[in-house]
Amino acid sequence: MSVDDRSLASFRVSMRDIDIYGHVHNSRYLDYCEDAVVEFLRRRQILSHFRHTSSGVAYHVKKAEITFHSPIDLDDVVEAKVDVEKIGRTSLSFAIELFRQRDGAHCASAHFVWVCVGLSDSRPTPIPEATRAALSPG
């Protein structure tokens, strides 16, 4: 259910992201993936569906899983692709893929699960129909 096959987010790796071994620290990959999901929502013009002030609900990260395939180094340009894997009753699953631009290497695969929760009690609540429709293919 990606917007298209083009990269959704592209960024250059900064020195602050590098660990003592000279490549991107593992924890930064999650930041890259989260940024890619936000860019995915922005490009679909539905970011407001995920702001609690405008949607009346919030989304909490339930699960973040990443598999590392190839290191990313200082000054590499990273491209990210995002797909909505599943829209459940109260949760959303995203698949994120990170690629190194210079050689096209597949660097990481990530999966996020977000749960829609009510603002007053932080308990799971159904994803609003407008959000569900906006995320559906078509």
UniProtKB/TrEMBL annotation:
GO MF, any single term: hydrolase activity
E.C. designation(s): 3.1.2.-
CDD domains in UniProt: 4HBT (cd00586)
Enzyme class of the recorded protein, top EC level: hydrolase
Record-linked Pfam families: 4HBT_2 (PF13279)
Keywords associated with the record: Hydrolase
Family per record: Belongs to the 4-hydroxybenzoyl-CoA thioesterase family.
Protein known as: Thioesterase family protein
Organism of origin: Rhizobium brockwellii
